[in-house]
Amino acid sequence: xxxxxxxxxxxxxxxxxxxxxxxxxxxxxxxxxxxxxxxxxxxxxxxxxxxxxxxxxxxxxxxxxxxxxxxxxxxxxxxxxxxxxxxxxxxxxxxxxxxxxxxxxxxxxxxxxxxxxxxxxxxxxxxxxxxxxxxxxxxxxxxxxxxxxxxxxxxxxxxxxxxxxxxxxxxxxxxxxxxxxxxxxxxxxxxxxxxxxxxxxxxxxxxxxxxxxxxxxxxxxxxxxxxxxxxxxxxxxxxxxxxxxxxxxxxxxxxxxxxxxxxxxxxxxxxxxxxxxxxxxxxxxxxxxxxxxxxxxxxxxxxxxxxxxxxxxxxxxxxxxxxxxxxxxxxxxxxxxxxxxxxxxxxxxxxxxxxxxxxxxxxxxxxxxxxxxxxxxxxxxxxxxxxxxxxxxxxxxxxxxxxxxxx
Amino acid sequence: xxxxxxxxxxxxxxxxxxxxxxxxxxxxxxxxxxxxxxxxxxxxxxxxxxxxxxxxxxxxxxxxxxxxxxxxxxxxxxxxxxxxxxxxxxxxxxxxxxxxxxxxxxxxxxxxxxxxxxxxxxxxxxxxxxxxxxxxxx
Lengths: 407, 138
Prior knowledge:
The complex is a heterodimer.
Chain A: H1 2-6, E1 17-18, H2 29-35, H3 37-40, H4 51-71, E2 78-81, H5 84-100, E3 106-110, H6 115-126, E4 130-134, H7 144-150, E5 155-159, H8 173-182, E6 186-190, E7 209-213, E8 224-228, H9 243-246, H10 254-269, H11 274-288, E9 294-296, E10 307-312, H12 317-326, E11 329-330, H13 346-350, H14 355-359, E12 361-365, H15 372-391, H16 394-406
Parallel strand pairs in A: 1-11, 3-4, 3-5, 5-6, 6-7
Antiparallel strand pairs in A: 2-8, 7-8, 9-10, 10-12
Chain B: H1 5-12, E1 25-31, E2 36-44, E3 50-58, H2 61-74, H3 79-83, H4 87-93, H5 102-123
Antiparallel strand pairs in B: 1-2, 2-3
Helix pairs in contact in B: 1-2, 2-5, 4-5
């Protein structure tokens, strides 16, 4: 299915394998079908009094109810936003300014958060808040002892991502929430990579706020949501015409909200098929780590079902991506060369991965749409690419000479 | 970010990859920490002509393409001509580079000059030119 849908015009690719679902996902046809009536029949403004508005309001209410039931919370606890980044900004800024009035001006987060969280925290530091960035272990799991030591009665908010976007490590959120609550702080989790990818039940998860995004789970870009536990009040980020119970202004993006609800419903129904995705993931990991001087980044078991992240020494990630792209495989890297800075991934560095190895990291993020043939293709395509790049690497040359000297 | 066709051509079919045994000048620049290392080998004849030039590079697409292009631009030329090779000439020959990748071309210029300096040192000639560094010293 993927091959036909994604084949770009004029490109001579024998095969197309999309393995960058952590970056974004294609919108599924069921989601598009669900959205379409909102552009024509249910086009009304949910705030309008007339029948078109009432009809739109009904559609909005049922989408919200569907999302709440997918996540195990109340419909009134779901607030729609424009994206995951907005949800993160709102949760952190809203909680920080609210808690400041209670004399709490300290925020605790981790070194491996998404930039939507890290850059918001850095901005708050410039505005006078203090922020503690807690470290992680070699597998990318937050250090709970460090977290416990970081919080105090001055802590307004603890922000720990549910699962990391680069290495896929799933965090001990329940334990982190208990630590936050032990000092009366608000617990927020950026669950953009987790919602739709693994089972999440807010009924049993003691977090106060949770953010997620549509385009990571086969809904369109431009829609996100923030769960805010009933009774918790945070300051607004976007003022406007009283939408979302006066907490987030802006006319509701109804087609996208419906798309998000449909995509989440489908994702939750597919959770039972996750062992198949995990099996494909584990086959990629076991086959690709057979390549000499390679190592899995992230946790061996506590990781997202679709995430593979492997470091290959003596080569650089962007070169790997370009060759994979030529072969029709879309992937991602933590190399600096894919960004404007000379520093590689902050996540890998926080895990203690040396710069040299971080530059050679490759992330493959697969989904339910991935097939066994796709996995075969990646497994047969990657090793010759690595060999080709190593053969022109001066670092590899040194290794080869050293090994020859040993013999 | 998009690379020009020329960059992709030099990336996928890099010219002059390899080592030169008993090279007259070798220059290694960059570092693994920053994600790019270029190693340039020069074979220079008695008339100061670069008769052969080979490279090995650890780095991104732009680093590989600029290394390849730089070897093409100096091979068959005199040392004086090679020392006049600027990073912008390499960029131009590649039909441009994305702004964040321009430092790769500086690295290529640095690699050639470092290899020439190595040659000068070997034959006892004073190094009378400056080498611009692509990266700050560690």
